From TrEMBL:
It comes from the Bacteria. This is DDH domain-containing protein. GO terms for molecular function: exonuclease activity. InterPro entries: DDH_dom, DHH_sf, SSDNA_exonuclease_RecJ. It comes from Sorangium cellulosum (Polyangium cellulosum). Residues 2-114 form the DDH domain.
Amino acid sequence: MAIVYHADADGTSSAALACFAARALGAEVVPETPDKGENVHSPAFGARVRATGAALAVVLDTGSRPGRLFEVPTVIVDHHRADPAEAPEVEAFVSTFGDDRGTSTSALTFELLAPIAPIAPRAWLAALGLLGDLGDVARRHPLVAAAARQHGFTALREAVSLVNAAGRSAAHDAGVALAALLEAERPADLARGDGEAARRLRALREDVAAATRRAIRAAPRVYGRWAVIELDEPYRIHGPVASAWTRRMEGRIVLVANRGYVPGRVHFSVRSHEPIDLRAALSALLPDAGPDVAAGHDRATGGIVEVPVFEELLRRIQGEAAQGAAA
Ligand SMILES: [Mn+2]
């Protein structure tokens, strides 16, 4: 079984739950996550999944698109925005279609697998994904409340930040986070345990934290309702840097672009303190940019574009600001 996952706290904890369940049911598992600059729809990634020889691919928290995903039979579990009329061509598609106010992929995965595999002692993994994606709002979720009673809220939150750091690292060493979750008996083992993967994970987080501290010092350029920051970092820190600036840029849409993540392309994150439909705001400026732009969530989106497309986006942001000033 190929277990394909998004390399953040939600996707990685979902993958850990699926690994435990599949092994308990007698399957051999091969975890796979897209490399830097790749996604699950990249042909090279599809070829890697095929090369595993897996009889089934279980795809967790990666978003979805219409059409066939892999050549092998595929199950998708996801909570990103999707059009129910254009579901992907897979054997099973479990989705909230973006209505993720109360759940995460990890919670969906746990609910699906707990009745058929002995994963109840690992319910705290579902809590990690909920906290990672929903933040403190997730404290009200029964899985988070139960995990916090048993393991302490601080240990859960620290585990989330450690797992997220792996996917953000310059080497995109997501496998370390999954290995640390698989070796951990409890969330505190990530922050304090002496497992080999946990130690490597803590070192990665130090690197990512130092890069983030550096990047957060760059001041935004303000164009109308947009605030733009440009980075040149091999780390996937554009999202956290954008989130960090939203409070100080109240009323504005914060766009953090990173030219250093994958050379030749610009990866960018869009966030706001206000409940603005950011996907709509971005799509209005780049209506023909394709599926790599304005995916994700209304409150957290972004894109991956070639450098000239990004330059065009900047011009259109400036154009929108000039129009607003004239009105
Ligand atoms: Mn998620």
